[in-house]
From TrEMBL:
UniProt protein name: Methionine adenosyltransferase 2 subunit beta
InterPro entries: dTDP_dehydrorham_reduct, NAD(P)-bd_dom_sf, RmlD-like-bd
Entries under Pfam families matching the protein: RmlD_sub_bind (PF04321)
Transmembrane segments: none
Organism: Apteryx owenii (Little spotted kiwi)
Amino acid sequence: EEWDVGVERERRRQRNRKRTRERETEKDEDVDIPSRRVLITGATGLLGRAVFKEFNGNNWNAVGCGYRRAQPRFEQINLLDSIAVHDIIHDFQPHVIVHCAAERRPDVVESQPDAASQLNVAASGNLAKEAAGIGAFLIYISTDYVFDGTNPPYKETDAPNPLNLYGKTKLEGEKAVLENNEDAAVLRIPVLYGEVERLEESAVTVMFDKVQFSNKSANMDHWQQRFPTNVKDVAAVCRQLAEKRMLDPSVKGTFHWSGNEQMTKYEMACAIADAFNLPSSHLRPITDCPVVGALRPRNAQLDCSKLEMLGIGQRTPFRAGIKESLWPFLVDKRWRQTVFH
Ligand SMILES: NC(=O)c1ccc[n+]([C@@H]2O[C@H](COP(=O)([O-])OP(=O)(O)OC[C@H]3O[C@@H](n4cnc5c(N)ncnc54)[C@H](OP(=O)(O)O)[C@@H]3O)[C@@H](O)[C@H]2O)c1
């Protein structure tokens, strides 16, 4: 196994050297490379893809890291391999690192707690230390699940009290980051949706088939209050925060960002049906507290006034955002034709 690791590391070094050469050739050809560099972990994931696009499209030189899905677009880095992490940070010398990689499925965290803690806590602390070593600004993406949801809305200064192991590992990750890098930022966000590769990729988009297949009645949670947030908006907030920090070194610490439309999953499902002109009478609201799976906070609404005071923020209306995200997964093409042609 050690031999494998060695081989993998050498291959990665070769790829890095090749990329550096390519970048240098580009320079020779007078291609305009933006001077601000950002490294994005989890760039193959739901949020990371949006963050990569946002920086890449706004005059930043962006390098994305992934793991299982990295090839061919992104660097393949196992964040548990501290040498690989050290190497890429020292090769690329980013000004900013946006750390999106995590195990974020509460039920998977409960069933594989050690692996989840390695990634969410240990790897985050290590990344923070490496960022501090070269003076890069690290943004650690965290979650509203650090709160117990009994006393919303929550400010950055309110005491966290995670109910499930996922929330606990993310909170420990926050601490590991700030202990290793006092100039870092923590950005807490709630449930995400956006352009998905598969509907199951987001807790919001996964409802679409239950909405579409209206011949079958479907139970929908109507207990937990949520604030679905578009990944493009979070990505814009990350870039704005990074750009603000480049001008003002006092920008650091914990921040909250969230959409401002409060909805249960049942209400999101109805809004989705409405956005596509589909029936919703087969959807059934369940008002009891869910009994299966990891515990969830009733209402962990995030107060976003700290970022708003800095002039940072972007909010896409849910109906517009969800329609854009789900459009490719619409089954009834006839509907498309009647409405749009
Ligand atoms: N999704 C939500 O609703 C939500 C809500 C609140 C907060 N958050 C937070 O937002 C952040 C982004 O979440 P997301 O939904 O975009 O996650 P995601 O879609 O599940 O993506 C996870 C990412 O982590 C990478 N990764 C996994 N193991 C790795 C390893 N050992 N080394 C390097 N990379 C590894 C994956 O790479 P490969 O796939 O290439 O292996 C993938 O890019 C997370 O910090 C999460 O806690 C998410």
